[in-house]
Queue: 2 jobs
Job 1
Amino acid sequence: MCPERARLIALHPETRKENDSAMMGTAVHAGIEAVLRGEIVPADIADHSVNAFRTRQKELQSEGKSINITNTDPKNWDKHIASMAEAWARDIMPHVPEGGDCEWKFESKIANVSNEVFEYELWFEGTMDYFHPQGIWDWKTAARKYYQAEKQTQNIQSAVYAEAATRLGLIDYDVEFNFGVMIRNASSTGQIVPVVRTAKHGEWITEQTIALINNLLTVKLHMPSTRWLVNDQHFLCSQRWCPVWEHCKGSYIPSDNNNAEEAQ
Ligand code: SF4
């Protein structure tokens, strides 16, 4: 989304922080995974998720670190985590086909790239929250509901995962990719947002990625000390969500003007 963000984080690894909302999402993921693996019954998902959060919090404390508070209230953490986990079990789980794989890590070679200047291999890697031959599932915790039309037209993750899965021979196009979304509040509801990725989406995301990499490699080769592409037209560009804000836009624009509500 913002290549400069990736470059600056690599240059300033000390800026990496554990955000509250991301940690809450990770805790809910732990509960979902435990249910799908048959390690706990769905009725225990709330307790399991809250415990996962508290365990991670203690680990951070023992490392002398704390949770970076963004747009949540610490006194609501437990009940929001419990509510989201229960929303998944109630509203989403009944629609998830059984027999798939949880936390499916993949590395998939996409292309050999060769042009006038560069020669390299393009690989996509990531982790599917749940893979089933009928489709790919990804769990999201969010402040508000997703708009299906926006995800169908703009979402990149689904195109990357679908291309990787088809290259690995796991599934054929057209690929159904489902977002299982839980709203972050005390009376959470679950929402399933399906998008479809075709072979043409796969070709486009591959071409788009190669164009981006070629541009970045060209800058790195000829102007190694200059900034990469600086994209501030998105939610993550704010003091709240960008860990390198102070090294970038934050050194020009006061944070009050960038009070983004939520990372998508
Ligand atoms: S402040 Fe904005 S433009 Fe700068 S690195 Fe972060 S996201 Fe990118």
Job 2
Amino acid sequence: MVIDCHVHLLTDKGHSEKILSEFQRNGVDKICLLAGQNNIKIWGSRMASNEQLIEEYRKYPAQIIPFGFVELGVDPPSLIDQLYSVGCRGLKVTRPRTNYNADELLPYYERACAYSLPILFHTGTVLRTEYDQYYDVDSSRMRPIFLDRIARKYPALKLIGAHLGNPWYDEAAMTLFWNENLYFDLSGTTLKRKKAAWFNEILWWSPSKNLTLTDNSTTPYKSAQHHPFYRICYGSDCPVEELPQVLKEYRSIMDDLQVEPYIRERVMGGNLAEMLNP
Ligand SMILES: [Zn+2]
């Protein structure tokens, strides 16, 4: 089962039909389809609202896993109850007015946790748009380390950080290491720029390598049971025309890193299947 965890729904007429046929042609079974800030454009089109997302989901419930958009600090946390009741299976958040780990945002995470809704967080620097003043956008509020508090406070909540925190990769990697309910996707430019040696430096823990780091069996990293890609998720976040290329990038980095088959399976959809059907 191949599941893409990061696909934006745009307002263009026929957009969902266009992307669903392209995903199907490329062997992707299901997609986490995201609503967004409705006035913001990516790839020349505006992002779809929650209402539009649900409309498309009702047409294609077998392929679409709807991730509702919540504007942190602006929408009431009760929006999450509504999104859950209309079928959302996850949430997307970005461009917060405060750091992701601020006290005032905790009620959102608590509610998502109560419904077992995974949250896809944009992490790292974000696209500049004409609405940046309106939303008071500050990329530094989306540093990956801010997921650390949320992950520890709500151990049953599943968090996916998008883009491996680009450019705060070290922060993203160590936050991933310590929190087993945290996952990252590698969408954006990272897979186009970074090679296997770099991944081995950043995501350094694995059962084979850890044996050489110390003889002390009580050191926490001795207990890493799996290659770090164990909690990496395939997410494309690209214009649909680039989908074949992005799929190829995920597969070739895993070839180069000699990621074992059971972990590749988790990356390409197993992780998402598990968090959506706990
Ligand atoms: Zn995105």
